[in-house]
């Protein structure tokens, strides 16, 4: 009887231990395997991540949609407006005018283009560890080319919105992983948009890091969208420590 009671108690203890929720997938992986997850590639968003945000997206959306339509869509989509997806259903002429308006705003952004503080240093660290780096943006390829030329920090592959389907669809990230011959679970997606960058990374099965400089996102946003980034930082300069602490960075 004493032996039976002891077995029962041990079984309950085991069930309690295995069902206890972990604070993150990373900590649970380290707890159960005593080994860090491998990381061999990092993919970045461009506007607002690698570059200082200068495009007035609210003004762009108002110009494309009109004030009334902008307010209606914004009320229905509190986490953000997917302007590219929205105009896909429009007539060819209306789409053309919308793309011209978007291009005008993007050109203004290119004229004021600045590299994000910490971006060059982080890229240097990745290079020192032989970690590949790619880029996915909903901007055009011309903007990527200007970024490469102006700051001499090159990302390969670097995909603009000419690659379809674009973010938040995971296909661009999966394409980069395939090009690198690296599985998505050994890659991290870094970006400043929960609905585009984190959704893309999660959909592909990659690690995700949300850059939130201003504290724009909180627990309610994660709950509403069902998107929970693996990491959240307010500066690119903090990502190096995250990589060194949580991942095996060996080539």
Automatic annotation (TrEMBL):
Stored InterPro entries: HAD-like_sf, HAD-SF_hydro_IA, HAD_sf
Alphabetized Pfam families for the sequence: Hydrolase (PF00702)
Sections of the chain in a coiled coil: none
Protein name: Haloacid dehalogenase-like hydrolase domain-containing protein At2g33255
Domain of life: Eukaryota
Protein source organism: Brassica napus (Rape)
Gene3D superfamilies associated with the record: 1.10.260.80, HAD superfamily/HAD-like (3.40.50.1000)
């Amino acid at each position: 009887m004493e032996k039976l009671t002891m077995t029962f108690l041990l079984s309950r203890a085991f069930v309690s231990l295995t069902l206890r929720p972990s604070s993150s997938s990373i900590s649970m992986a380290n707890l159960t395997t005593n080994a860090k997850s491998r990381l061999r590639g990092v993919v970045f968003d461009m506007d607002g991540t690698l570059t200082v945000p200068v495009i007035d997206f609210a003004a762009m959306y108002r110009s494309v949609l009109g004030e009334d339509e902008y307010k209606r869509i914004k009320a229905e989509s509190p986490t953000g407006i997917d302007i590219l997806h929205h105009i896909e259903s429009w007539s060819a002429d209306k789409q053309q005018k919308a793309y011209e308006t978007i291009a005008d705003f993007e050109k203004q952004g290119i004229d004021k283009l600045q590299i994000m503080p910490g971006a060059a240093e982080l890229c240097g660290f990745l290079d020192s560890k032989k970690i590949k780096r790619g880029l996915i943006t909903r901007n055009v390829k011309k903007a990527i080319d200007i970024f490469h030329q102006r700051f001499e920090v090159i990302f390969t592959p670097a995909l603009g919105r000419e690659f379809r389907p674009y973010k938040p669809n995971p296909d661009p990230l999966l394409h980069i992983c395939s090009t690198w011959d690296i599985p998505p679970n050994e890659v991290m997606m870094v970006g400043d948009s929960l609905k585009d960058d984190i959704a893309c990374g999660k959909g592909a099965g990659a690690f995700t890091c949300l850059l939130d400089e201003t504290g724009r996102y909180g627990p309610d946003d994660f709950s509403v969208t069902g998107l929970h980034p693996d990491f959240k930082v307010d500066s690119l300069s903090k990502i190096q420590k995250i990589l060194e602490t949580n991942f095996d960075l060996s080539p």
